[in-house]
Amino acid sequence: MKVLKFGGTSVGSVNSILSVKKIVEAIEEPVIVVVSALGGITDKLLATSTMASKGDLAYEKELSEIIARHLDVIEGVIEDKEVRIDVQKKVMALLDELSNIFKGVYLINDLSAKTSDTIVSYGERLSSLIVSNVIKDAKLFDSRKYIKTVKQFNKHIVDFDLTNKLIKETFSPLPKVSLVPGFISSSTETGEVTNLGRGGSDYTASILATALDANTLEIWTDVDGFMTADPRVISSAYVIDRLTFTEAMELCNFGAKVIYPPTIYPVYHKNIPIRILNTFNPTAPGTYISKERVKEEGKAIIKGISSINDTCLITVQGLGMVGVIGVNYRIFKTLAKNGISVFMVSQASSENNTTFAVRNADADLAVQVLNDEFALERAQGDMNDTVAEKDLATVAIVGENMKRTPGIAGKLFGTLGRAGISVIACAQGASETNISFVIKHKYLRKALNSIHDSFFLSEYKVLNLFIAGVGTVGGNLLEQIRIQQPKLMRQNGLKLNVVGISNSKKALLCREGINLDNYLEELKENGEESNPEHLCEEIVKMNIFNSVFVDCTASPDVAALYETLMNNNVSVVAANKEAASSSYDNYTKLKETARHRDIKFLFETNVGAGLPIINTMNDLINSGDHILKLEAVLSGTLNYIFNTISADIPFSEAIHMAKEAGYAEPDPRIDLSGKDVIRKLVILAREAGYPVEQADVKRNLFIPEKYFEGSLEDFWKNIKDTDAGFEEKRQLLEAEGKRFRFVAKMENGACEVGLQAVDSHHPFYELEGSNNIIMISTERYHEYPMIIKGYGAGADVTAAGVFADIISIANIR
Ligand SMILES: NC(=O)C1=CN([C@@H]2O[C@H](COP(=O)(O)OP(=O)(O)OC[C@H]3O[C@@H](n4cnc5c(N)ncnc54)[C@H](OP(=O)(O)O)[C@@H]3O)[C@@H](O)[C@H]2O)C=CC1
Ligand SMILES: N[C@@H](CC=O)C(=O)O
After folding, report:
1. How far apart are CA 389 and CA 313, in angstroms?
2. Among 85, 460, 498, 740, which has the minimal tally of Cβ within 10 Å of its Cβ?
3. Tens digit of pLDDT for each residue in 692-709?
4. Helices H / strands E in the chain, number of each
5. Radius of gyration of the chain (CA)
6. What is the largest CA-CA distance in the chain?
7. Distance, CA of 2 to CA of 39 (rounded, Å)
8. Which residues form the ACT domain (predicted)?
């Protein structure tokens, strides 16, 4: 035989009760079916009691809703008219009793524990009566007659000797289907109605399964089983197929509300397995809980992560505690005497403090009673005042396979460190099945996500992207992500979740991910007013794990956010060159911050767009080479212009064309003035190991300074004046068989940029379109420098370079 328990949601509606009928009637062996009250009814009974006890006549409305709910369910689940009328009568009789009790509570304005217990018992009495008339051949039993309790420490404790005896008598012989109300019981001494506490229906089922030696206990609920973590917080959480009793106990004691914790003890002792199944998805395999510890190859070492939101840490501290016997005894005795439950304890081996976790609501009382207990020691200066730190959260990782497996704690705390989360207290029992730690509540979501990502081979890894700038580069990047995303997910298990998008005026932020099919309209219509500071604040506030800020703007104000973002463990990928070419101090500070926080600051596209220049230089240096000299054409815009001007296309027209083609900076004067090449050379020199500032670069510019003064419109208007002069120079050069190239050079840290006329023997002569070229001379590449050449500007190649930086953070293959 087996015992099946159906919770409130499983018997909460007409459809769910019909599913229960189908599930039970398909079983061939004898079954005991335990039911909870209709979903939400226990809460409503309690709320109505409180109203009535306060003399609030509105209780009558609540009561009429309770009545209507039950009558509606009967109407929907019982087809046979005669049976239906009979059940309606019986149910109405119970509801009349209930109504009279409420009236009494209302009239005398008093709600004793006994009356409250009686009122809530109606929930299961009503539901079991209804369900017993839905399932074919079901026989209804009354749990008050065989689940007996005695009072201990103001709680109703099961009187197991009597209960087991009565259960055996009651269910002999065992009917094919026995229908049993969960939760309710009665007192051994007085016979009065009692109950097993909230969630007690699971316990009823466990007690019955144990007393009758069932082969399985099935808990039917509204989820597919124990999940690796709370799926409302972690989208990649999945159902755990097997757990040991210990693991299940650890997980549900620690916040996973799949089963009521005491349920596990009785069946554990008789080694009766529990299956967690979903009434709404009955074919799902669910979670199987048994004594056996199975170590499955390729599966995560830990089984689940759970958490307690409501945590306060209390610390008792003082040098006077060191070596003194009995301090902890006094702490915990005092707490117990005052009914304060402690769920985590941590004591340093120095013995100078004991820290423990309680619920926030118990904190003030705990501090007060402990200060009283240690009043003398405090007065003598041997101990400090007791301190409470509220609004914290406790997280636990659970798994029996952690036993004797080195590196678990290291991995856990390393993961938290990389996410920028500080651990306030931690504890691990010698059983090694649970490592618990306390953090600030605001980091809970991030901690759970980071740990889940690190420990579980989820179907996919997530990178959360904030993309600033949706123009030429940013827009192209978003389109590449949109197109590539399904393949990355399928082949590499990488989900790129774009959680933020912004332009200069608006920001769109969504933790769950922005739909990339129509982000521009969304940004326009639903984006919030934004500026760089606001954007930064919002990102920090969202506090998302594995997040990357992608800067596709040209804004110095946006670049100024990197430090704060990185200090909040957000990696940065920049197409924007402002930060890497800013003061050397700022550049090194950002790089050090990234190293120190174990995050990334990547800016490959700052030089040569998608060409692998910076990465190659880093690889050379990291393998022990030294960069001695760089010679390069680094402006796609200028190279394009010099390759495009002709008798038909004047200089000013070629600038327009470079802008149109997406090569030029948002402000093309940055290209024309040589500034863009200067900052690129500075970045390369720094990456090569030379502490260079922009002011150190010698420059031989080719457009007089006056053209860069005034507004951008002035520039476009005035630059036409240079067309004739340029055409003259071009013709001369053509006659000499030479071409203009704007060349950047660095030799042992000395940098210069300038216009050069190169002949056909020069390696830069044949450099088509907007291409860039760089010759890198090193100790190893000396006689024949390393050459990297290709598209050096343009939306798609730059976006692809930014994309590559992002992918490198995910570290996928
Ligand atoms: N084009 C290329 O070949 C290469 C470009 N780069 C770099 O890429 C960056 C982007 O260039 P590109 O795409 O051509 O420029 P665009 O002008 O096309 O786009 C810039 C984007 O940045 C947004 N923006 C500006 N200021 C802010 C701000 N304060 N906060 C948020 N968003 C802002 C703009 O918004 P709005 O529309 O509201 O102004 C726009 O969406 C530049 O730094 C450039 O140097 C690097 C390598 C190659
Ligand atoms: N404006 C730049 C774009 C790449 O950095 C260029 O023309 O090279």
Report:
1. 5
2. 85
3. 999 999 999 899 999 999
4. 28, 31
5. 36
6. 116
7. 24
8. 316-400
Q: Are 222 and 258 in contact, with CB atoms under 8 Å apart?
A: no
Omega before 173 within 30 of 0, i.e. cis: yes
Residues 6+ apart with CB under 8 A from 57: 106
Alpha-carbon span 274 to 249, nearest angstrom: 12
pLDDT band at 370 (very low <50, low <70, confident <90, very high): very high
Q: Please give the distance of CA 499 from its chain centroid, rounded to a whole number.
A: 12
Q: Which residue has the tokens 């309680």?
A: 358
**Amino acid letter, residue 316:** V
Which protein residue's CA is at the shortest distance from atom 4 of ligand 2?
793
- How many residues are given for the chain? 813
What residues are in contact with ligand 1 under a 6 Å CB criterion?
Answer: 468-474, 502-505, 532, 552-555, 557-558, 575-577, 605, 609, 636, 662-663, 665-666, 793-794, 798
Question: How many angstroms does the Cα of residue 664 sit away from the middle of ligand 2?
Answer: 6
Q: Give 609's pLDDT tier (boundaries 50, 70, 90).
A: very high
- CA–CA distance from 592 to each of 37, 328, 597, 599 (Å)? 60, 44, 8, 10
Distance 469 CA to ligand 1 centre (A): 5
CA distance 523 to 548: 19
Token pair of 267 as six digits: 């069946």
| Residue located via tokens 């700038």 | 469
Catalytic residue among 461, 577, 659, 680: 680
Q: Report, as an integer, the average pLDDT of 415-424.
A: 92
As given in the structure block, the two tokens for residue 693 are: 């500032």
Is the CB of residue 792 below 6 angstroms from any atom belonging to ligand 2? yes
- Cβ distance 744 to 632 under 8 Å? yes
So what's the pLDDT on residue 457?
63
Q: What confidence score (pLDDT) does residue 299 get? A: 67
Cα gap 312→440, rounded to integer Å? 10
Token readout for 643 is 């390759």
User: Of 60, 42, 43, nearest to 106 (Cα)?
Assistant: 60
pLDDT category of residue 404 using cuts at 50, 70 and 90: confident
Question: Cα dist. 372→174, 237, 314, 404 in Å?
Answer: 58, 46, 15, 42
Residues 208-225 have pLDDT tens digits of: 999 999 999 999 999 899
Q: DSSP letters along 365-420, please?
A: HHHHHHHHHTHHHHHTTSSPPPEEEEEEEEEEEE-GGGTT-TTHHHHHHHHHHHTT
> What's the CA angle centered on 632, arms 626 and 634, to 5 degrees?
120
- Cβ partners under 8 Å of residue 580, min gap 6: 574, 587, 590, 603, 606, 679, 683, 686
- Let me know: does 148 contact 158? Beta carbons within 8 Å: yes
Average pLDDT for 306-323: 88
Q: Kindly report, residue by residue over 445-475, the tens digit of the pLDDT.
A: 999 989 998 888 666 788 999 999 999 999 9
Please give the pLDDT value at position 194: 96
Distance CA 180, CA 208 (A): 10
User: What is this model's ipTM?
Assistant: 0.98
Distance CA 32, CA 209 (A): 9
CA of 637 to the centre of ligand 2 (A): 6
Tens digits of residue pLDDT in 114-171:
999 999 999 999 999 999 999 999 999 999 999 999 998 778 899 999 999 999 999 9
Percent of the chain with pLDDT over 70: 98
Residue ranges and CATH numbers for the domains of the chain are 1-38+112-221 (3.40.1160.10), 300-455 (3.30.2130.10), 459-608 (3.40.50.720), 612-792 (3.30.360.10)
295 is catalytic: no
Task: Count other Cβ atoms within 10 Å, centred on residue 189.
Answer: 11
pLDDT at 301: 79
